[in-house]
Amino acid sequence: MQTDEQVKEMVKQKYSEIALQDKDTNQSSCCGSGCCSTEVYNIMSDDYTELKGYNPDADLGLGCGLPTQFAKIKKGDVVIDLGSGAGNDCFIARAETGAEGKVIGIDFTPAMINKARLNAEKLGFNNVEFRQGDIEKIPVTSNVADVIVSNCVLNLVPNKDNVFKEIFRVLKPGGHFSISDVVVVGNLPNALRKDAEMYAGCVSGAIQKEVYLELIKENGFTNVQLQKEKAINIPDDILKNYLNETELTNFKTGNTGIFSITVYSEKPKECCGTDCCK
Questions:
Q1: For 112-147, b where at least 16 C-beta lie within 10 A, e where not — what string?
Q2: CA triple 75-166-203, angle to 5 deg
Q3: Domain range for residue 145?
Q4: For residue 29, what is the domain's CATH number?
């Protein structure tokens, strides 16, 4: 069983490798009879190309939804993107918040931060910044953000409860988030749960859908809404790396499902207790 720190280090190493590749390389990474790990990352991604602010240099195909499309960002908002990668969601958020707003991207991986900063510099954006940090300890002061977005990142964090606590702290009273993530219904086979590559690919790190939604409520958020949900189908040529034929058949015909969801929720406008607005 890996410790939380070992999981984080594995994720950092894997996403450092991905940061040095372009989207086409990531998406064509099936190697002969067995698929490389990056194949897993791209099964879930949605098409950003029609969204205002889209920049192909910032799109590594790592998401599992379009949270910025649902995030209700207004002109002048302060937006924080957790797990900002090469900056894709930040630049789309900037198209919504405008030059008068501010966008802050947080990422764990130095190589991703460097790539995002280069992209922002090329675009000439002086109101988009990128900070290296752990989203279990967001490097932002309390009550700053109008909106928080995140795209297929909480699965990479061992302690998701800590992240939601931090999201609550950083949001202004009355602020909200829109997060795309992967959840499961039923129990994943042990081989998928234990494999490090599947963790980095956001599969084995997924928790139960109802547990995920309950975590949000337990941390004080209100008006929880599922904005989008879609089934994730992992190709057989990937599953065969982890499951034998019997396990594969049972997995595909059983009650287990892997889903991408986009969830919206709000921090209450008024404090409901002594710790509410900290």
A1: bbebbbebbeebebeebebeeebbbebebeeebbbb
A2: 95
A3: 4-264
A4: 3.40.50.150
Q: How many CB atoms lie within 10 A of CB 105?
A: 30
The yes-or-no verdict on residue 174 having pLDDT over 90 is: yes
82 token code pair: 């957790």
Amino acid at 27: Q
Mean pLDDT, to the nearest integer, of 76-94?
96
CB 71 within 8 A of CB 141: no
**Cα 53 to Cα 128: distance, rounded to the nearest angstrom:** 13
> Tens of pLDDT along 225-275?
999 998 887 778 778 888 889 888 888 887 788 888 999 999 999 755 445
199 has a pLDDT exceeding 50? no
Label the pairing between strands 102-107 and 128-132.
Answer: parallel
Predicted model pTM: 0.83
- 166 is a domain residue: yes
